[in-house]
Amino acid sequence: MLDNVERAADSSWLDGALARFAADNGDLAPRTRALLDALVAEPTRHARMLNTLSLLEHMGSHKIMATQHSAAIDQATLKHVAEEAHHAFFMKRQAEKTAERALEYVAGDLLAPSSARMYFQRLEGATVRALGERRSVRAAYLYMSMIVEFRALWFYGLYEQALKRAQHALSLKRIIGEEQAHLGDMAERLEAGHELDDVRASAVLAAERRLYSRLLGALERAAP
Predict the structure, then answer these.
(1) Which of 31, 91, 193, 214 is the most core-located residue (most Cβ within 10 A)?
(2) What domains does the chain contain, in order, with CATH numbers?
(3) Where are the alpha helices (DSSP H) in 132-197?
C-alpha cells in the first residue's frame, strides 16, 4: 500500500513538473521548431545534428558508467546506461545513413560541438551546486538524469513533429517512449529514497533552461 501511495505522489509531482516545464519553455519552442524544420530539410546539416545528438547521448551513458560503478549497482541503472548507449548508436547510425559516409565526433561532423559539450558539463555543475554538500553520489546521478530527461522528452517530441511535417521516414517513437520511462523511473527512485525535493528540482530546471537557450543559440548560428 505504501509503495502505491509513493508512486501516486511521484506521478502527481511529475505531471505538475512537466506542465511547468512546458510553460517555462514556451518561448523556446517556436525557435526549436524552426531550427528542426530547417535541419530536417537539408541532409548534410541534418546528419551533423543527428551526430551531435549521438554525442550527447554517448556523453550521458559515459557519465553514468563513470559515476555508478559500485558493487551495489542495480538493474535499473544498468538498464538506463544500456538504453542511453543504444540511443547514441541509433543516432549515429541515422546520421551516417543520412550523410552516406562515416562520421566522427569532430567539429566538421557536428553542430556547435563546444556548446554541446559545455551544456552537459555546466548542467552537471549546476546540479551539484543545487544539491549542496550533503548530496550523495546516487542523488546527483538521479537528479542529473531526471533533468536531462525533461529536456530530451521535450526536444525529441518537437523533433518527431518536424519529421512528420517533412514526411521523413525516421521515427523517434521508441526513443521517446524510453526517455519517458527514464524520467518516471528517476523521479520514482528519488521519491522512494525521500530525496525528491521540488525546490532543488526547480532550481536545476531553471539552470538547465538557461543552458539550453545558449545551446539553441549556438545551434542556430551553426545552421543558418
Answers:
(1) 91
(2) 2-222 (1.20.1260)
(3) 137-165, 173-192
pLDDT tens string 41-97: 999 999 999 999 999 999 988 888 877 777 878 898 888 889 989 999 999 999 999
Please write the tens of the pLDDT for every residue from 19-47.
999 999 999 999 999 999 999 999 999 99
Query: If you search the block for the grid coordinates 558539463, which residue do you land on?
Result: 121
State the virtual CA torsion across 129, 132, 134, 139 in degrees, nearest 10.
-50
| Coil/strand/helix, residue 101 | coil
- Tell me the CA distances in angstroms from 41 to 105, 107, 125, one per residue in order: 22, 21, 35
Category of 168 on φ-ψ map: left (φ > 0), alpha (ψ -120 to 50) or beta: beta
Give the integer Cα–Cα distance in Å for 117 and 121: 6
Residues 148, 140: Cα–Cα separation, whole Å = 12
Q: Dump the DSSP string for 76-87.
A: HHHHHHHHHHHH
CA distance 48 to 82: 23
Q: Which amino acid is at 184?
A: G
